[in-house]
Amino acid sequence: MKKSILAVAVLLGTTTAFAQDLTSKKGESYLPEAGDWAVSIDATPLLGYVQGIFGSNGGSSTGSWSFLNGSNTITGKYFVADDMAYRGGINIGFGSVTENAYVADVVSSTPGALVTDSKKTSTSQIFLTGGIEWRKGSTRLQGFYGGELGLGFGGGSATTYTYGNDYDFTTNPTQTHGVDGATDVLATQQKGGIMFGLRGFVGAEYFVLPKIAIGGEFGWGLGFASTGEGTTDTKQVNSGGTALEDVTNQTVAKSSSFGIGTDNANSMFGPSGSLRLSFHF
Fold it and tell me: What is the C-alpha to C-alpha distance for residues 271 and 266, in angstroms, rounded to an integer?
């Protein structure tokens, strides 16, 4: 922690050797202006680099730039005035993973014959944020404050199983899937939910170079989230023992949560609680 504080002090201290002129020798303005756009990234790798210069032995002198929060939300700003900006964030993601495994062919007369079991899982999520910030300060040190809304959808998943051996009541009434050992499972589904958040925030930035600032923010607000139910479809022998039937069971109940308090890099509001490096252009 002390090394991180020292790294920040070095970054800020190197700029104090210059007069508090808000225009560089090349005529570039240090501070954002109306019409500027801004994006921010995690500043931790930069601090690690500075620590490495001064002999840090913690292995923190290397790293890669990353998003400001765990949900990989891209955040940005648009300045409608020198001291006011609209903020926004977005994360729209879809994914699909297919896993295959060989299992013995239960009907083939050929020794060692194999067939393929497949498992396919699909996921999706959408996070959107929007807000407004106002800025204060007449030097390179700028304070800011404001509010924003966040809305999220999805987060659920759907999995389907395909068996290489066909179900047959007389010869193959039960099966174990070759990918993960799930018995007689045809499909599982975890319904997505909805998230809603409203927060106020306050923070500060120091412009170490024209249009490049290091800073951070914290916020306070409320959040609500709900999660849908989960179900599992299986193939089973009926109660009479005469045939196979598909059965759907609810495996996960609906749930919801609500909270009010300070925030820290939650899944909707990316910048909160993180040290960041911002670029304006």
Answer: 9
